[in-house]
């Protein structure tokens, strides 16, 4: 038997190779990866501190919100601000012109910045549809591809600003300004022309990322401070006893959350204060605390989405929170493998670690100068916002400039303790005052009406009329002239106005002779109680009339004095 043969030489040679391979290794250091290991397959290898993947996630999330906002606009703008809308934007723009005493002037444009100044007003419905459809197309492209540049993001911002500034009361919600501020920052997160998910020549700007963090800080802190300074129930921890029932448009989950024990509602209120008054400061306490802030705020927004129909507000609030996460945190969202986004980001990080930097080009210097200017602009426009935050007379959801670049925010500074609803009713009776007149209810898309109808679940979509009906219920019809305009449209069975409703009791019939508004108090039915057993989600009790019975003839002068198109019988 030969001891020096090949069978014995192979292990010895293999051992010798391993020793040579580890000659420079520190004692106790782990062995290097074997030839079958793919280092790009490990998300842990993505280093902290870069934001290439963050930009993709953030821009796609922003594009999704834009898509929803333009979808709502396409479905509802004609009925609300179109040629025959409840508050026509053509009339609004004419009033702006008259206020500044002349044709289109710089004062008028700066008061209401919108591209509609440049278009033909004789077909306003077509103009509104064109803006919404263009916005839908651009936002769909960014959402699907993950590619965006300054031109596309600026187009989305200009289009939506053009709608908000003529939307009047229908676009008076705080999330409209929040979307415009978020969208404005999104413009500067992109390269000028390049359409690539990973434009290696344009790394995400730290100034822009801090702009997003500054935005979410103000949103949450403003919401927390307005509560503490506002309704007493936020201080005695009882607001959540009422919120689920009295919020603008409850969903089915809110019905069950409202029935929770008192101690659950106290915990919810305390948690709200912690998340809005304490957690925002985590942003400034280093990477780990910033990541924790982003995770907590996103979780908070998910809970709010589950518990109510707050339009796309909570979805939108998640967007700036994304800026708290770097590539190492978000790597799990992207597939591993050679040539993938994660692999390409890893190579960029390795090049940066070796000190390989691309030559400084003219375009890079211009971009840095623009980002510096943006930081100075945001800081300057933040001065009145910060003063407002520190003021005991804080106001929420206010813009200090017509472009809505930096704004104040807040939500539910006061909580209504009981729910009231305006129920519109029509009758075919020739005499509205006779006891035998049969009054039939109109049903809206989402707001409570029929006590037996299940609350809707529509977030992030937004029925603007339903929200305004909630506000109108604790005001008077004199404060909301549009509701009389709506009554007039219903008296004519106007197809445009009726499309905003879920049920028209006079469909395929002669229009009603009279329409009235009735005021009701609504409460959730008690699970296991008599009303719930009968299939009713709500219990309602009449308070009294909201506005008296009206006929089409009664409204003729009212319409003409406001330059509203007089309804024509369908």
TrEMBL record:
The record, for Pfam families, names: LMF1, LMF1_C
In this chain, the stretch annotated as Disordered covers 1-39
Q: Which InterPro entries match?
A: LMF, LMF1/2_C, LMF1/2_N
Localization annotation: Endoplasmic reticulum membrane
* Domain named Lipase maturation factor 1/2 C-terminal: residues: 405-548
> Residue span of the signal peptide, if any?
none
Which GO cellular component terms are attached?
endoplasmic reticulum membrane
Q: Where are the transmembrane segments?
A: 52-74, 131-159, 179-195, 207-226, 298-316, 369-390
Task: Name the source's superkingdom.
Answer: Eukaryota
Indicate whether Cell inner membrane appears among the record's keywords: no
Q: What is its main location?
A: endoplasmic reticulum
Describe the function of this protein. Involved in the maturation of specific proteins in the endoplasmic reticulum.
Which PANTHER family does UniProt cross-reference here? LIPASE MATURATION FACTOR, LIPASE MATURATION FACTOR 1
Q: What is this protein called?
A: Lipase maturation factor
Naturally occurring in which organism (per UniProt): Neomonachus schauinslandi
Q: Which gene encodes it?
A: LMF1
